[in-house]
Design a protein that fits this description.
Strand content: 25-35%
Protein name: Alpha-glucosidase MalA
Pfam family, one: Glyco_hydro_31_2nd
GO molecular function, one term: carbohydrate binding
Number of helices: 13
Structural class: alpha+beta
Family: Belongs to the glycosyl hydrolase 31 family.
Organism: Sulfurisphaera javensis
Distance between the termini: 61 Å
Bound molecules: ligand LY7QZA5B
Amino acid sequence: MQVEEKDGIYRIRINNPLPPVEFNFQGVNSSKSLHDFNLTIEEKENSLIISKPLELEEHIVGLGEKAVELDRRRFRFRMCNIDAGKYFKFSDPLYINIPFFISVYKGKATGYFINSASCDLVIDIGVSDYSKIKIFVPHRDVELFIFEGPTIEKVLERYTDVTGKPYLMPEWALGYMISRYSYYPQDYIIKLVDLMKEFRVTAVFLDIDFMDSFKLFTWDKEKFPDPQKFIEELHKRGVKLITIVDHSVRADQKYPIFISGLGKFCETGKGELFVGKLWPGNTVYPDFFKEETRKWWSELIYNWLKQGVDGIWLDMNEPTDFTTYDTYYEILNQLHATMKDERLLLTFPPNVVHEYKGKKVPHLMIRNAYPLYEAMATFEGFKDKEPFILSRSGYAGIQKYACVWTGDNTPSWDDLKLQLQLVLGLSISGVSCVGIDIGAFQGRGSRDIDNSPELLVKYFGIALFFPFFRTHKATNGIDTEPIFLPSYYREKMKKIIDTRYKFLPYLYSLAIESHETGHPIIRPLFYDFQEDENTYRIEDEYMVGKFLLYAPIITPTERRLVYLPSGRWMEFWTKEIFEGNSWINSSSDLPIYIREGSIIPLENNDILTFGNYGKFKYNNVFIEREGNLLKLSKPFFVRKIITEKKEIEVNKELTSIDL
Ligand SMILES: OC[C@H]1O[C@H](O[C@H]2[C@H](O)[C@@H](O)[C@@H](O[C@H]3[C@H](O)[C@@H](O)[C@@H](O)O[C@@H]3CO)O[C@@H]2CO)[C@H](O)[C@@H](O)[C@@H]1O
């Protein structure tokens, strides 16, 4: 075993690991031992068990996309990326598995990252042993990282020093984007965009039906007779185009991409081409673990983007294949039987291998890193174009290349709460650009689906400040775009979307901060109030940066109780001031609270400030408040300044102003 260290980061190498991803770390040898980290290791013939005490007053947060409470105690997590289908609370695993967690104990946060992308990794937080965290590693060689705090923020800075800072999405990608499975033909889409004018759509997503027989990088000529004109029409309206690109290359001798990719696809251990099944029927899959494959793929992406496509949506990239599932499904059907978790059958079969660093590695050993390498190759394909990638799956480091979303959620009141848990869980695990299918994906497949406008509005409501903000729906689902709703609900959606645009300069500044530091854009309350024990069980409120608390309404009412942590808070709509460390009855349908010491840039060059101190960097201008004086580091046009007491019309360039 070898321990290296650098600036509060420790890497422990047990036996002779071949990490699935070589992260950036140049440490020096350390004299520390496992004992110093309070860890013990039990070595088995083909596996390891790493244990750490779990204290009664300890909180465990992180682990990415997990369908349980944000304090992860008392759950046994399987870390295997799968196509989660119609998932619910406690469904485990889901699409994205990040083996990184943060312990908060006696005011001190410490991060732990097990660099294993194995589908059989299990992290048990006090279930099989009440007073222990047990990590079951299904191989004997592994690399661990430990990140010192003492704050959660510092742990995240260190974790993203190693695994990569979140990429900076384009500003337009923070706007309202629309999608469904699937929009076509091209003229309809243009008409829809025009009908949606007042909702300020910034991008349209095309789902799989835009392709000719699901062949990647092709157009269905009936649905899209003139793609160039279509793209121009969108761009004329200031709307970007994002197309889906799955990992499935149709196995077809007449398809040039199949031919050019030969030698770069996944194979079985016997060296035979692995031909699986996905949307195009018989399918082969790029082996993204190979550098040569990634170069080939980047060129394909580059050429596809050249026609004016602005972003890429990577779906099904856990990676999913239908072969095993279809076989078992048939047998089970004949037997009138069901399986406990058939979703695990959507993985590649175990005889598939990847070529990684000159070695043949079984698929299930490094499966979870597949989407990361795919996103990396896709990112490269943008070359000098501002990248936008949305990925359904991921591993530690996915934040460096892509935004992610929570897949095929089901419209229900329960799901609202679950979506907050998923998004905040990802956010606290290094993935800043995160969102959901607003309106929830599932169509009219089962009786638990709630298609009421009340619920649909609440989906817009929870997502108000999510960095990725898109409606998306299954083929047999209702229309979720606001224009299709009765006026009462449409107005509510309009208010939500307008509020998002009002705060967009703040959101974009936070995205820049996140890109530079690794700080999440939206955070669970305990991120900013680590010492406040109340915050660890509050999952229906979130912070947006350090200065804004949002408490979405997630029940069929229009009012709610809000917990405000310590400090003073100003209600955004009424300017009423509240003393924190208290529960208050909010009177707003969008409860937004501004923290004392805030400076928040708003739409149209307005500035919101509360309290007689504060600092913020916006558009490379440092804005500072000292008492009644607001100073700007260089001349900057300001329209209006909004304080707790008044609104000041400015309408000129400023370097300072007495409020
Ligand atoms: O590109 C089309 C959509 O693809 C994704 O969703 C699909 C999912 O990945 C598939 O496994 C399948 O899932 C359904 C499953 O077959 C069914 O038994 C039931 O559990 O419902 C599942 C639906 O979630 O089909 C999905 C498409 O219907 C992707 O996540 C979507 O965003 C894409 O629109």
